[in-house]
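Technical appendix A lists one of the benchmark inputs used to test multi-chain prediction within the project. The record comprises two sequence entries:
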Amino acid sequence: MEIKIHKDRVGFPMLQVEPDLYLHWLPITKIQFEYFLCDAYDRSFDLRWYEEVLRLNPRVTPARISPANYWNAFLSAVLPAEAQRFAFWCGDGFRLPSGQEWARAYRILSAQPVLALEKELGDLPPRLRELVLRTEDAASEAARRLGYRRSLADQLLMRLGFLEWVDAEERWGAMGEPFPELCGTLAAPESGEPVYPNRPDAVRLPCLGFRLVFVNGKS
Amino acid sequence: MGVIEKLKDWWRQWRKGPDDPILPPPVSLGPVPTLEVFSQAGHGKSSYLWSLLYMLRKMSLVWPDYLCTPQDESTKEALKGIHESVHGALLPAPGPTANKHRYELGLQSMERWGDRKLIVWDWPDPVFAASLDGNRSERTNWLAPALWLVSLQDLGEARAEILDMLFDDLMRTRTLQGFAAYTRPFRLVVVLTKADAIPNLPPSLRQYLKDDPLRDAVRSEVSLLSPPPPFPSEPLRLKEESLRNYLGRLALVHQEIHHWLETTLVGHMLIRRAAAYHVDLRFSIVSATGSGLVDGQSLQLPWTPRRVLDPLFWALELDSVAAR
């Protein structure tokens, strides 16, 4: 598989999974979202809002990421509308994936072996590079302990990451397999079917995060 | 009182029957309708029983001639309530005394097991909630196959390391009730509940929970009010051969859990202790709700019970073997 990388507004890598479709390498991190918080003029995202989100999934610095806490590096407990607001800030072509896009990407990437990240993502800014590489080390060790055989999809934390918001036929669904210690679910990304949270617009759940797709040439 | 009077008095007491305050109630022989369920408070007993009863109704999807019929008014009302709660993603109220129920069902035309009556109590049990059980211990049918529900993560690190001692409590209570381990061996299914949240569950067992074909059968159910699914799947039929295959898989999963537990000291001791007590032991894993995403009394994902019928299948099998 030829690796093509696109970078989002703050330099985070996105992997090409289809000719015009790129997927964030990892779920959205707190660092990415903090760029948005500093830049966006939106009263909904004030300090109290962020404190509430951090209460549900605390922050960890890249240097302290470990197999027991790597999910703390990512933004979760956000509602779909908030994720959409972030996508809008990222610019034209960025949006939440549909359930089918997410499932297709998983099918493609789970058939691929893991990549040597140092080589593929070597040109990232140092802070992002440290975040990506330390997350990779922690997640691969966590997967090893659980007995998971990893594929490229696992490297992108589509398993042992979060449930991720997807746009699923006019309602909000979630796909992915969260790390069991983060929350117990039997969501199965390999089934290709989203799960449907009962109150997606009201309840913040620590195991619900998101990532974006970038559709090349589309707004 | 003379000896003759004492004997007459004893005889009068004996003839009073099942409500006798001194003697344990008579236990029927042959296929035993009761399913005894032991569990510490908070280990998911009510949720498990809700899921079991919910799925028992749904088995008509895979056994076309099968019928699940409540045998009394209170069971019928309870089933209606459970059905509505499951659809509304509500959980049973917490606390050992919040969901006191006796469920009695007639299960007709089950493949392999035929017709059975099933009586199951959601009640603080005589071993792990002895102070709350009233006279329940005297009503326990110790000859029936029993389930022991264990939520490893709710036990916590320290108590999980004394699992074998908790098992010993169960066996000693049974012995004290007059059921000797040697002459009347115990048939016990150890059910690991809330398995979705067991952090180090082997991946093959996690996959077993994900792949529950009965869950898929329920999902493919055509509702009276909702439009049919866009791509209807082939309906599952658990006829003789497919049920045999299912039970074969059940046996493999039992062995896999056995091997997994044996890698730990406490699991090894539990298995050794069960052997010493001549217990006919089986292992099973279930997830009554399918996820642990809870907000107060509500589930945040729809109820999706996984493998909750497995323990009952084991109980029916153990009962069939004993009856042969």
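The two ends of chain B are 47 Å apart (CA to CA). Chain B touches chain A through 26 residues (CB under 8 Å). Comparable benchmark entries are summarised in Table A2.
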